[in-house]
Specification:
Length: 418
């Protein structure tokens, strides 16, 4: 697009931090209130529903946040190509939304956990569907995240306030996804208004073949991203099935949400480095950010580890002191996540090795399943054992990506291509 000039890496990263705040930190900001109002058991139900929502969101995104971002970045000066990408991806997401809705309906009819709370899961499905239609990939590709970020943050902030105003007791728990849904809907309308009337882009009629091709291009990225959830949000679902109506599930959900908020610091850095590395291939900067950022996060995690119980009591309420030991076990995931993100697609894609980043999480998912099978077989399944297995798995993925990156870096230096 001729009227869209590349922004600085710092500005784009800052906007991605704000956008991540609207998706994660706004959700986390409501946790201290919700944990107190809903109580551990009801909040545990919400925690499981949020885990299922994450699966649905990843399915509906289908890796387009990476594949479509790359397409837009490669054709940022051609409106016609951008419109084609926008239209085919939107069409593909419509197909995925219908498919996801059918799958969820079958689960609600056949699985007791879903059947008992079918309204809750359907509301979270609607939230995921609306959220998936926001074309983040468009703004990431042209590195103009401030356009979508400001509108999204303001609108979601309004509906966050609604949570504090209208949710007064455990019986109001269905209002949680309702307000999230309304915030996402407002953001969707605002963004598409900007796309149509400010950017002068429109959705084109696209063929089924174009939609199918978009899904095929993104399939490898999808399998990579969905595999990574096996050792994250699947834990919550497993615990929800095994420990129904247990307050321990609520404690785990609270600690897990704290870790998700901590890890959200890493994703904007990696997301902004991805298009930047595609253009600049500045490996020195990437390595510097990885080690300085990782060390900074480690320093932050040390006092959090020491005072984990006090933090949980302060943030979540007096019933959540038991979440402290769980939080302590999961804290290593925060610095690990930054290194894993940076040594993944931003580091490997410029070398033409995105497949290594994709396969690494598949191998990690396999390792996690092996660990879970071991725990089941020997009757050792517990919140603590699953936390330890998760840290082992994410460390394994990091080692694969980092080794691959530094081997490629050394090889290209020897060949004089860097």
């Amino acid at each position: 697009m001729s009227n869209l000039k590349p922004n600085s890496l710092l500005k784009n990263t800052s906007m991605l931090f704000l956008l991540t705040a609207s998706n994660y930190i706004f959700g986390f900001a409501s946790i201290p209130y919700l944990t107190r109002v809903l109580g551990p058991e009801t909040y545990g139900i919400i925690g499981v529903a949020m885990a299922v929502y994450t699966f649905m969101q990843l399915f509906l995104d289908f890796g387009f946040i990476l594949s479509a971002t790359g397409e837009v970045a490669s054709n940022r000066d051609c409106n016609e190509s951008i419109e084609q990408t926008l239209s085919s991806v939107t069409g593909a997401k419509a197909v995925l939304i219908i498919s996801c809705g059918v799958i969820l309906a079958i689960l609600c009819l056949s699985v007791e956990m879903f059947r008992e709370q079918w309204i809750l899961y359907m509301l979270f499905f609607a939230y995921a569907a609306i959220n998936s239609l926001i074309p983040d990939f468009l703004y990431r590709g042209i590195e103009r995240m401030e356009i979508v970020t400001i509108r999204t943050v303001i609108i979601k902030a309004v509906f966050l306030v609604c949570i504090f105003i209208f949710i007064r007791s455990a019986s109001d728990y269905l209002l949680v996804p309702v307000f999230y849904l309304m915030g996402a809907l407002g953001a969707l309308v605002a963004v598409f208004w900007h796309v149509r009337f400010r950017m002068r882009l429109r959705l084109r009629r696209t063929s089924l073949i174009s939609v199918v091709n978009s899904i095929k291009k993104s399939a490898e990225f999808f399998f990579s991203r969905i595999a990574s959830t096996i050792y994250t949000y699947l834990n919550t679902v497993i615990l929800g099935v095994m420990f129904t109506n247990s307050s321990g599930l609520g404690l785990y959900s609270a600690a897990d949400r704290a870790i998700v908020a901590g890890k959200s610091v890493s994703s904007p850095i990696a997301d902004s480095m991805y298009p930047y590395m595609m253009r600049k291939r500045n490996n020195r900067l990437l390595v510097t950010i990885a080690f300085v950022g990782g060390f900074a996060l480690l320093l932050i995690c040390i006092p959090c580890w020491i005072f984990s119980t006090e933090i949980c009591l302060f943030v979540f309420g007096e019933e959540y002191g038991g979440a402290g030991p769980i939080l302590r076990l999961l804290l290593p995931l925060i610095p690990i996540s930054l290194l894993t993100y940076l040594f993944g697609f931003p580091a490997l894609t410029p070398f033409g090795k995105a497949s290594i980043a994709n396969r690494s999480v598949v191998y990690g998912a396999i390792l996690h399943c092996v660990q879970l099978a071991f725990l089941f077989y020997f009757g050792m399944v517990s919140i603590e054992s699953i936390c330890i297995a998760t840290v082992i798995t994410e460390s394994f993925v990091l080692v694969i990506r980092a080794l691959a990156y530094f081997v490629l870096l050394a090889s290209n230096r020897e060949n004089g291509s860097l």
